[in-house]
Amino acid sequence: xxxxQDINFFEKVYRVAEMIPYGRVTTYGAIAExxxxxxxxxxVGWAINKSDLNRIPAHRIVNRLGxxxxxxxxxxxxxxxxxxxxxxxxxxxxxxxxxxKFFWDPCKEIDKKLF
DNA sequence: GAATTGACGTTCT
DNA sequence: AAGAACGCCAATT
Length: 115
What we know:
It contains 6 helices and 4 strands; from the N terminus they run αβααβαββαα. The protein is mainly alpha-helical. About 30% of the residues are buried.
């Protein structure tokens, strides 16, 4: 039976992911930390894997080094990079340039009380 | 139902 | 400094 009041871990991840602003990026770990489960960054990536790419801007989520580790899941390896560059984020050698500059930390930017 | 798997991150060697 | 090991925990096999 479903606990309808209780939002799934997946659903939480989606909510945060949807809030990532255009032209910014964040990390799996940051989302996990925001959700209060610091060590389950893996789950975040996994949730997104199972998510609907039409709904979630998954290309704005990278690992903590700014590497496009999930590009393999976009069908075509180039899509993720293209989407990022389309938003003004330069990517070279699988890595986001000036990653810290584009990094969007949900802990800082989102009011937890909104959740 | 046990074992394996992950779009990760930290810690230990 | 670089690589291996381990923790995380839901879903899949």
